[in-house]
């Protein structure tokens, strides 16, 4: 794996940009795919959002200042793209974000790429009841095991706020899963 500073320099150079970008995609596409997938739910929608994320990264790499790690910057773009996708989808369907989310979860059962069982489906339904920020924090911590320090950089908030959001999310999910 390339050193991050070297990779960024290669991404900003016209001679090496394309090859460096292929390396970047190779390094991060799977992690970003699952990050986005936990937000938008559908495989096909995830592919679209992932593609848009990488297009934005490619077009905006020259604006990357290096204040954070490149993966934090890309996760922030992916998160914003996923949220924008949900908002646009809700608007297109003339529903609320929550209703659009419920629809996406109901469609999970027929998604050939969804390998979860009934318990996994119930967990996804529980997660969908959370406010959007808690959903993102829960998914990043629970499914991707992202450290609070890194999450704080990605979501541009404090570790304390994230820990509180995660704790509240876990409690709400437990309550949802234990009701009859």
Automatic annotation (TrEMBL):
Could you tell me which residue ranges the RNA polymerase sigma-70 region domain spans?
24-91
Per UniProt, what is one GO molecular function of this protein? Answer: sigma factor activity
Q: Which residues form the signal peptide?
A: none
Q: Which family does it belong to?
A: Belongs to the sigma-70 factor family. ECF subfamily.
Q: Which UniProt keywords apply?
A: Sigma factor, Transcription, Transcription regulation
Enumerate the InterPro entries for this protein.
RNA_pol_sigma-70-like, RNA_pol_sigma-70_dom, RNA_pol_sigma70_r2, RNA_pol_sigma70_r4_t2, RNA_pol_sigma_r2, RNA_pol_sigma_r3/r4-like, WH-like_DNA-bd_sf
Annotated GO biological processes are:
DNA-templated transcription initiation
Transmembrane helix is among the record's keywords: no
Q: Where is the RNA polymerase sigma factor 70 region 4 type domain?
A: 121-173
Name of the featured protein:
RNA polymerase sigma factor
Q: Which organism is it from?
A: Oceanihabitans sediminis
Which Pfam families does the annotation name?
Sigma70_r2, Sigma70_r4_2
């Amino acid at each position: 794996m390339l050193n991050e500073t070297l990779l960024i320099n290669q991404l900003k150079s016209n001679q090496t940009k394309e090859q460096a970008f292929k390396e970047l995609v190779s390094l991060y596409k799977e992690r970003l795919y699952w990050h986005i997938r936990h937000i938008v739910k559908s495989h096909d929608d995830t592919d679209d959002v992932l593609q848009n994320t990488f297009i934005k990264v490619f077009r905006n790499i020259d604006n990357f200042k290096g204040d954070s790690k490149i993966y934090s910057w890309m996760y922030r773009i992916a998160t914003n793209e996923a949220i924008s996708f949900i908002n646009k989808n809700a608007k297109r369907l003339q529903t609320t974000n929550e209703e659009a989310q419920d629809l996406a979860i109901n469609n999970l059962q027929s998604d050939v790429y969804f390998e979860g069982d009934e318990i996994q489906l119930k967990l996804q339904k529980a997660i969908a009841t959370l406010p959007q920020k808690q959903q993102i924090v829960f998914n990043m911590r629970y499914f991707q095991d992202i450290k609070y320090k890194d999450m704080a950089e990605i979501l541009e908030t404090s570790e304390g706020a994230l820990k509180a959001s995660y704790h509240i999310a876990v409690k709400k999910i437990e309550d949802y899963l234990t009701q009859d």
